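Dear all,

This email documents one entry for the complex benchmark we are building for the journal club exercise. For each entry we list the sequence lines for every component of the assembly. Then comes the predicted three-dimensional structure of the complex as a token string, followed by one or two observations. Please use this as the template for your own entries, and keep the labels exactly as they appear.
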Amino acid sequence: MAPGPGEDEIPQVPTGTALGEWLGGVGPAVEIALCTRVRFARNVQGYRFSPQMDTDEARDLDAFLRQTLAALPLAEPLRLHELTDLEPLEREVLVERHLISRELAHVARPRSVGFDDAESIAVMVNEEDHLRIQVFQSGLRVAEAYRVAERLDDLLIQRIPVAFSEEFGFLTSCPTNVGTGLRASVMVHLPGLVWSDEIEKAANSAQKIHLAVRGLYGEGSRALGDFYQVSNQITLGRTEDEVLDDVSTAVEKLVEWERRVRDALLSGARRTQTLDRIHRALGTLQNARILNTEECLNNLSAVRFGVHAGLIDDLTARELDQILLLSQPAHLQRLCRARLDPAARDARRAALVRSVLGGARPCRDPEF
Amino acid sequence: MAPGPGEDEIPQVPTGTALGEWLGGVGPAVEIALCTRVRFARNVQGYRFSPQMDTDEARDLDAFLRQTLAALPLAEPLRLHELTDLEPLEREVLVERHLISRELAHVARPRSVGFDDAESIAVMVNEEDHLRIQVFQSGLRVAEAYRVAERLDDLLIQRIPVAFSEEFGFLTSCPTNVGTGLRASVMVHLPGLVWSDEIEKAANSAQKIHLAVRGLYGEGSRALGDFYQVSNQITLGRTEDEVLDDVSTAVEKLVEWERRVRDALLSGARRTQTLDRIHRALGTLQNARILNTEECLNNLSAVRFGVHAGLIDDLTARELDQILLLSQPAHLQRLCRARLDPAARDARRAALVRSVLGGARPCRDPEF
């Protein structure tokens, strides 16, 4: 897609062309549990917490931590980027790839991010905490992600005077992270629970053991595309093993539950309704000329369910997950190499989706 | 489609396999003016009007008129059917083909219909009037349809003592038909005017010259599928030529207006929105597993617009018009050779529509 008339060419964002680990498409229960993330919140002694720092202090710390990250003895050195050097659109691309938080993209202070080529490690500097060490693994792999994060954390702690209290554990900017500073979260795709009106019940049962269930896209409680993020809410007074176990067990239960309701949706009298919903979504994505993010995500969700249920031919789960990412506003503009207003984005998004999903077909219908 | 379990096989309805003249697909402005109908209301001296007749009187008149109709010196004799001999579903098929009125299908008295193989002539016996002589011609052909109807009317009047007053003209059961007993109506497809929110204005301008504009499908003012019927409302005090001219001129104006708004909908900034609407409708029809009459008609309307605008490949206007008829409830059940409840009909309708529209494709998109 060449830039249209009046559209500015934009610089290339410093990420790989691959999708990154969070859409890796392999790992346990990946058709439901797309990706596991484990992160540690760490701060450096002798500096105020990020929200209280002035610009000079933040610049000083940012430089120190970048130097430290660059020198880590890793198999592959991290790519380091000062976010003030990046265009707003490039920062948005990093947000859509889950490499940085929305806060880090928008905050004014000097700040950086370092990530590896596979995008399975991303360390944020001067976010809410001085360091946010994040490790991603596709599928439901809490223990594995934790092991990588722990090793990275060890390497950093050896090189940095970390803010730690014998009484409370690791000290963090926000009290909810004090203690282990650990958050384990899993991105899950739950169309079955949403379509069966069981998502509230499922979210409540996770909340009972102090897990948060939030929409992965969109603001507030709306979960666009039936994508959710399940994570622990508390760190203080809970060991790392307990946190990992809570999240892992809860997601395993959600996965089982989701599989059960998907089977029910595809059985008996409800099967026709489910096929109707899935195939209509495919028809919309293959034919629309105007497609906003919300409608796109919601239809991709239905089609993703269909692909994993074997109801759609000539479309791979991989192609579909790719579109999930590439149809996001910043990625779309990067792909078009042009800044686009919302109306132009909706038209380009529709064109992109058609070009990828155009060849997909509902499986041969036995009834007629 | 063989009958499913528990579905009764139903008798074949006595109509041809063709679509009938009203979906003939040829004639002036047929992409907008599907079909012209001219009908005369006539009554026989010495009999009460149909609503007042008792069963014996109705049976007697019905027999007499059938005999008369059978003996008319036509190139092809009319096929005559007593409606009490037909199953309710068979009568519904005749209604959907516009050969008989809904009233004639449901009224209790002895009554008949005679029509030719092409379904371009249909004479109802013991409807609101003793005789309703109807002639259909595809496209906008008011004068031509009138000539055929007039000839048929002459043949009948020569053989029947017709109720006629020197003062009022032909006497009819309802005062609105007194005089010429003539109604000319044209079935028009106006998606452009509906989508542009100009349909009210168009209908009002027709009403100003005493024409009625009614939805062809559905009850009341809702026009499913953007199909309307334009006809004269008064007969008394207006010559036949004036009535024909009123209807003809008004429909010509509507056709021009519709063409103008279609051009506007396909130009400039609105083109993408229009393509979006048309191609989404195609996607829905090609993929839905459950499709009720209303949604089916509305999407067929959009696709019909698209086919006539050259936006859809591998689908002919003829195939589309065929589906318009065959997807109606009674035709659908006849095709399935089974009585179906509404849920089963919606599933079979979706399957039928997929089977006919499955190969259609949006024309190659130049933008991407």
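Observations: Chain A is about 45% helix and 15% strand. The interface with chain B takes residues 1, 272-273, 275-276, 279-280, 282-284, 286-290, 347-348, 350-352, 354-355, 362, 365, 367-368 of chain A (CB under 8 Å).
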